[in-house]
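Q: Got a minute? One more chain.
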Amino acid sequence: MASSRVRITHRPPLRAPLSALLLLLLVATATHVQSETAKATAALKHFYEVMGGDEWTNSRNWNVGDPCEQGWYGVRCNYATIDGRTLKLELQSNNIRGKLEDTDLRDLQWLRDIYLNDNNITGTYPMYLCNMITLQGLVLANNQMHGTIPSEVRFNYNLVAFDLNDNDFEGTIPSGFAPMRQIDLILLRNNRLNGTVPADLLTGHLRQIDISGNEFTGEVPPMTGNRLELFYAAHNQLSGTIGDFGPRINRIDVSHNQLHGYLKESIARTQRLIRFNVEYNELSGTIPPELGHQRALLYLGHNYFSGSIPQNLSVVSRLYTEYNKLYGDLPPFLQSYPMNMIGALDLRGNAYWCPLPHWCSKPLGGNGMCDPCVTPKFCCHPHEGQGCSDIEISECVCGKVPSCCNDRWGPEWYIHVHSSSAFIFLVSFFLPFAFSSAHSF
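A: Always. Here it is, folded:
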């Protein structure tokens, strides 16, 4: 019986051409993009309706065709990105009214920047903004928004700029900002925020922070962040001393608070100081000569600084030391009119020695920016024959230091300086510096 053989032939599996796979991918991507584009267009139309679009200052091409192709005013598109488009919403100063939480901006998947400052937006901070992970810039300044800043803002880990200036937000600064490695700028000026200033904000990754015009209390944390360049906290209720300074910080404004103590020597670490404003506090001690190393704007007025003006402040661009407890001769760079400080100098309300330079003394025909001055006179006031209890300097003529001050009181005696604007105390070991050989009393 003849045997039969069955021959089995193995065939390779069917494979779709690579070009077909790419085509399918492109079709799927196009479909997804079309779907997201439709959602984004619907979200923008809803935004227009809810936020009073018919009354906007400029609504050119809105609700006509595709937002990017038709160039809706304030909608910026970038087709060079991998996802086909990146959106920016730039509608600042456009008479926009309404509540952001009533809009569907969450459906703008590619939204990267929102600029809605200088409008009439009300309501609270929308929670959906915290879930927009592509968001890099959020500027809602100068509106009428209120409520608290949610802690969930930490989920915007790509956020670079955060600006809520000039609104009515209250509560504390969320702790979630510090770990955000991309954050560069936080502006919260002129709200009703309170609590203490989070220390990690000034030691982390931030470059600029402005919290002026709020209700913050507590001390000023050390400004030692490696990237920190600007710290503004004026018009708050901060107390305590001013912390250390980092190497990059160049603009500081902590005026109109209740700060006290001396300025720390770490101010010398600053490499390019531009603006330093500590006016209207309760700071004391001498003016650090380190402040004169750069052409800074120095605002030191309305404090309790004493001593004389350091000579090396001649390089600063502005010098305001009005209404402190400064005394002594004006430094040589102020004896003649400092041309580099025209209109940028105020030394009033201290107790500089007479005569003052003619240019800054009103009785001598000047602008009065150094008045008043005092002419010292030493007077002995013995206590039951025990010698000099104190030396009084009043606005009269000069004289020699009385010999009674060499008695048993030794370093206990001090000087009172009386004038209409100053009352200064100097312990005796400062006298060699206060009364140099240039004076004969």
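A: The chain has a mean pLDDT of 79.
Q: Perfect, thanks.
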